[in-house]
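Lab manual, section 2.4: Encoding a predicted structure.

Procedure: take the sequence of the chain (269 residues), apply the prediction step described in section 2.3, and record the output as structure tokens. A sample record is shown.
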Amino acid sequence: MLLHRTLATLAMLGLAVSTALAGCAPSAPEDLDQGDGSSSDELVTERQLGGSELPNKTLSLTFDDGPGPRTKELAEFLGKEGVPATFFINGKNVPGRQMTLDAIVEQGHFLANHTQHHLKLTALAATDVVREVSETHAFIERLQPDLPFLIRAPYGAWNGRTAKAINATPMQAYIGSVYWDIGGELTATSAADWDCWGKHVSVERCGELYLTEIRSQRRGIVLMHDVHGRTVDMMKQILPVLKAEGYAFVPLLDVPAVKRAIATETSMP
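Recorded output:
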């Protein structure tokens, strides 16, 4: 059930979102839950899932807006390094890249739904929300029919009306929307890859800013965008540094807030 039907505790999240060009543009999340364990939510809630409950020096890597020209290369690099990742795909980018989706799954990564055309779901009619999710769901279901389905709303734009539209369909088994803790804003001490490339920040400098933010936060869901080739270069630059500093990498399915949502869904009659 999308955004799960009963959220006991959810984590806090970061700030950032994708632009219509396949990058991202910052925007305030519509509703984020700190998650104190005291909530008693209705069947459909707009709260999003984050990674602030992960152990110290533990990260979950997520990549949005692909598959892109170098996504297969990225998936194979991470697979060789033994680092799991979640790829939130836009269905419009799938045609001609079936081998890339196959490689993502073969390398032990996870496919998740970032909608078909990267539109702001909260601005759409319910029928259009369902269409945006269902068209991309068709690609994911063929490759991962027996795994939980996760969604991330483009621009972080999510609310109860959007969740309800999807909950009224057979896709109610979706979990999400999944937010992020790191990688949402380009500042003097944090980074957003899409904004780095738009502002001509070098791969080296953008990577340094990601490392600075990660060292400050020390845990969480990391947001990047595999549709950009420079993001692949940056990931190859910073991953050895993070490993040398003792950071661990876990699948998104192992993030506590996501695990609780999945457990809640599977326990529903």
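Check your result against the sample. The chain has one domain: 58-267.
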